Amino acid sequence: MRFKRTITIFTACLLVIPTFFVSATSNQNSYEQEEPKGKGSYSEKHEVVYATLDANGQQQDMYIVNNFNIEKPGQMIDYGSYSSVKNLTNLNEIEQEDEKVKFTAEEEQFYYQGNLEEKPLPWDINVKYLLDGQTIQPDELLGKDGQLEIQIDTSANPNADSTFFENYLLQISLTLDSKIYQNIETEKGTIANAGKNKQVTFTVMPEKKGSFVLKADANDFELEGIQINALPSSMTFDSPETGDMTKDIESLSNATSEVNKGVSELTRGISELNDGASSLASGSRDYKSGINQLDQSSSELIKGSESIKQALEEMNQSMNSESSGMDMNQFKELQQGLDEIAKGLKETENGLTEFKDSYNQAYQAIDQSINAIPGHDISEKDIQKLYESNADSNVIGQLVETYQAAQNTKATYTNVKEAFEAVDPTLSSVIDSLSEMRTNLEKMSNNLGKSLDQTNMDELMNQLKEGLTELSSNYESFHAGLLDYTDGVSELSTSYGELHGGISGLNNGAEDLENGARELNQGTDELADSTSDLPNQMTSEINQMVSEYDKSDFEPTSFVSDKNEKVKSVQFVIKTESIKKDEDQEEEQPEYNKEKKGFWDRLLDLFR
Predict the structure, then answer these.
(1) Three-state SS at 56
(2) Distance (Å, rounded) from C-alpha 76 to C-alpha 81?
(3) What is the pLDDT of residues 554-606, one digit of tens each?
(4) pLDDT per residue over 47-91, tens digit each?
(5) CA–CA distance, 56 with 577 (Å, rounded to integer)
(6) Domain spans of the chain?
(7) The architecture CATH gives domain 125-224
(8) Is the separation of the CB atoms in 493 and 270 below 8 Å?
(9) Where is the signal peptide (predicted)?
(10) H/E element holding 450?
């Protein structure tokens, strides 16, 4: 059967050969007549960079396929530091001298290949393999089973032209046989079906590093080469419509400014509260000191009053029992005793009057300060709303504590205010009583002195007895009232210590609150300043971000030599070597690398 087929083909060749020779001779004559002479030109040039890497991403081989769109056939010059060149269009020779490549183009499209050595790619590419969590070399991984992890990292190659890294987008693709790989997972890539296989794709934006992880369960591990394509990022970005968003941001900026104004007013109010609380604490300290001194002096006052009371009682008893035997000298001693008692009452009267004046000043200061505390009734709902705002929670807590302390102080003062108000009339009453008794004693002393010159001693003694009896009785009542008064002073001194503690706490809280409010105001000032131009800043940031990724104005440059002109595009096709069994390894020659076959080559293929 094969013999018949061979005879048939051979016969066909014999029939075709004469025609071919005639045609070839004709074409040769035509070629010789139409062979372009002189300098030719092209409209644009395209470069495709083919690079192979080992399985770990280390660069191995590289060559360039140069494509020209011919305007005028003829001789042309291209540039590149090639180790060798090869015509992919026809059988014409290509001349190479250093970096200069000369060729003659006859058709509309002309291709030639240039091989490069030690020309670095614009990207550093690193591929790492792990099996069951342990790093493993690619040649050791073949045929293994387990949980596979492939890590791919890309970055700028510092030894290469940065133009391509800054303007090119990388697409990294892995083709995974579904018979080998199960449970494929990745976070930054996309997984798609490609026939019986799965295709995983990663994208790296211009000027960015890439770091990707692929996980899968592998059975009898094999892997096709990882394909990496690099193209100019030709995506154009239109600036988004930010009108509505700008309005919202402007509303936020205005609201922030209003919050700052409100916080500034709050700070001023808290500062006034702190000043009032400081004055209240100062007045309270003075009042507490005075009431404590009065309480401490009460024992001396009672002791002195006891002495006066006892002296009056003794004088009264003495007058009633020994009046008939008293001589003139005793009456004079009695007059002196009355004068001394009157003098002691005068000193007590002056001391109480001075204390009364000091007390009234301190009381007025406290009353004014406490009355200056606002009596606003802030509900728990209002406080909760304040906590839900964006204000500093620590400052809000201090504000609430100070408010509660102020209200407690105000309520406590209201409860004891009646006792405060009772002090002044009580002191006035005591002072009046002392003044009245002092006046009576002075009158008695004066009358006694005048009466010593009179001869009617019986009448004098009767008047003196009546006066001393009445004075002793009145002083008894006064002394009882004085005891009640000193007991009240002692109780007031004790209870005021608690009130003063609350006032001191209010003062400390108000001071902390003012410090916190000032810090809050500084923060809102900075926030208001930083957000005042926020709409323009946002628009500027968006435009900057868009321009960062918009490479539509990128002008391609040759990867091989900056002397090359009219470069329309430069594309990179990079592939790692496959990790496959020997019988599966096949050399895959891309279509661009295959020479155009002549008639004889095509004819001979029939016999191969």
Answers:
(1) coil
(2) 17
(3) 889 999 999 999 999 999 999 999 999 876 554 444 444 444 555 445 545 54
(4) 999 999 999 999 999 999 999 999 999 999 999 999 999 999 998
(5) 9
(6) 125-224, 274-534
(7) Sandwich (2.60)
(8) no
(9) 1-24
(10) helix 393-451
